[in-house]
């Protein structure tokens, strides 16, 4: 019993250590995204002591897009995605087991000690997933903030009225900004769950397995068939 307890303790510590590393990476990504969103604002750039430039030249837009791409790829990517996917699959598996146990006998579900262990694990994993989902969602909002480009387009239109002699040059920059806006909209990954990277296979497993299990539990508890 003592060896079994130590093994569980070590495995639990290792697993939650990996989850803490993943959360730290997500926090770093959010910090980079937050500072990146302040580059085009003079007041915020002065406040956080970061470089500032306006998107009024084609060269500046090119630097802005290159910096955005570099920051999004900075830090570990595959390893963190593997950890997050593993957490999600483990939470999905535990939820499926709990649903199966409830369907087997919901009145005796809480009598078994291992079911309590499953519920504690599920609660802890869901808390981590919600935290990562919140950080990932905020990070995506910072990188996908199209209002920055729209603001720069408005500034260009105002400059065209003040400086008609530079209308051709400013029109070129405005067209590049429009193409950049369309590009950012196209770069959004379809398989995302509040900022978490979702593999298509995991997405299909979630839709088929867990929804079917939840549908069976709800139907069993309510006493009539229901489709989710």
UniProtKB/TrEMBL annotation:
The chain crosses the membrane at residues 6-26, 82-103, 115-133. GO terms for cellular component: endoplasmic reticulum. Keywords: Membrane, Transmembrane, Transmembrane helix. PANTHER family: PROTEIN PHTF1 (PTHR12680:SF8), PUTATIVE HOMEODOMAIN TRANSCRIPTION FACTOR PHTF (PTHR12680). This is PHTF1 factor.
